[in-house]
Design goal:
By secondary structure, the protein is an alpha+beta fold. The protein is about 65% helix and about 10% strand. The strands form three sheets. The chain has a five-stranded mixed β-sheet. Helix 1 runs antiparallel to helix 2 and helix 9 packs antiparallel against helix 10. The longest helix has about 55 residues. The protein is elongated, with a radius of gyration of 25 Å.
Length: about 375
């Protein structure tokens, strides 16, 4: 059985470009300030630049909105088409007629609702970036001024610290809870969750339209314990057959797998899926032995063995390291190009070169790991 794996890389890449533009705008604003004598004059200058930065970021976000929205839309369209294609193979074995999602109003409505919900969430998240970035800019500049005025740091040292700080702490999104994430992290999570929830809703609608009340849950390594108990089993959409065993598989209810809740099936970071299952026609895609082996350490690397889930997390960690170094390199390069004098430029050039070397090595290590 093939499963649909949404690829959010194109969407994330666009938002990473947005983040890069924001970091560049922050550094340029900082470099324009230069030395300002007197606390009162400095506070007036930083407030003015922070206000202008806010306007810059709002414009940057607006200029990227259409491209980002189009990429998210394309991902949802692909999810709908691929999900229906996979499900059609199953329904046809039960002699159910194939369905074209573009001609099915119920499934189109599900797809559109999922897209609109995800787009709204993304808009709300990104809209917080201007204010969080403005605060990060203010804090970095204020810290830099205090370091110089206290005599603890030279102007060059303070600027270098501020540039690194903005690369590491700027361009965040803020959730209603107050939790913060980098743009690319938030976008990947939001997009994959939205697409995943929508694809299973399309599968559910397809099954209901075809009179199928059972869905087979997929299974993967690294499943959290509360999900591991039901992965690879069956779930009933109507309550019929609940608690029974069919073809060796236990039948759970939607409530028992937490469908619709944040910590349940297709909630936060859940990678499980489901497919229609017809009694007397379908056959299980997993044996109980296969499910037990999912968490075996069978992937060799550097003399040790890891589970597939552990390897995927190691890859993500490597990708985050590369992304962090790209931000630092970009920030240092922008600072060099906009440095107020040769002394500052020379100091920042050292940071740029050092970060560029680290970035090249991190990219090399990630490529070797992936190979």
């Amino acid at each position: 059985m093939r499963n649909y794996e949404p690829d959010a890389d194109r969407v994330v890449a666009l938002y990473q470009m947005l983040e890069d533009d924001i970091i560049t705008a922050m550094i340029r604003r900082m470099m324009r300030m230069g030395k300002v004598s007197g606390a009162t004059k400095y506070q007036a200058e930083i407030l003015q630049q922070a206000s202008l930065l806010y306007e810059d970021i709002v414009q940057i976000i607006a200029s990227r909105t259409d491209a980002c929205s189009a990429a998210v839309k394309a991902l949802f369209e692909d999810a709908g088409v691929e999900t229906v294609s996979i499900e059609s193979d199953i329904h046809e074995t039960a002699e159910q007629p194939p369905v074209n999602i573009r001609q099915s109003n119920p499934m189109r409505r599900v797809l559109e609702a999922g897209y609109r919900k995800t787009q709204k969430t993304l808009r709300n998240l990104v809209s917080t970036t201007a204010s969080t970035t403005q605060q990060a800019f203010y804090d970095a500049c204020d810290r830099s001024y205090m370091q110089v005025s206290s005599g603890a740091f030279s102007y060059q040292e303070a600027i270098r610290t501020a540039v690194r700080s903005l690369a590491d702490t700027g361009a965040y999104v803020t959730y209603p809870t107050g939790h913060r994430d980098r743009i690319d992290v938030a976008v990947r999570r939001c997009t994959l969750t939205g697409v995943g929830q929508t694809s299973v809703a399309v599968s559910k609608t397809y099954a209901e339209e075809s009179g199928c009340h059972l869905m087979e849950l997929t299974a993967h390594s690294g499943a959290r314990p509360e999900h591991a108990r039901w992965q690879g089993q069956l779930v009933t959409l109507t309550g019929e057959d609940a608690g029974k065993t069919i073809d060796g598989l236990h039948v759970y209810t939607l409530h028992e797998i937490g469908y619709g809740s944040g910590d349940g099936f297709k909630g936060w970071n859940c990678r499980h899926d489901w497919h229609a299952y017809y009694k007397g026609v379908s056959r299980p895609n997993y044996t109980q032995e296969q499910i037990k082996k999912l968490n075996e350490r069978n992937v060799p690397y550097n003399g040790k063995k890891y589970t597939e889930y552990e390897v995927s997390q190691m890859q993500r960690a490597g990708e985050r390291d590369v992304r962090a170094l790209k931000r630092r390199t970009l920030a240092a390069q922008t600072a060099v190009e906009n440095a107020p004098n040769d002394e500052v430029k020379a100091a920042l050039q050292e940071d740029y070169e050092a970060n560029a070397v680290k970035l090249k090595e991190a990219e090399k290590q990630l490529r070797m790991f992936c190979n």
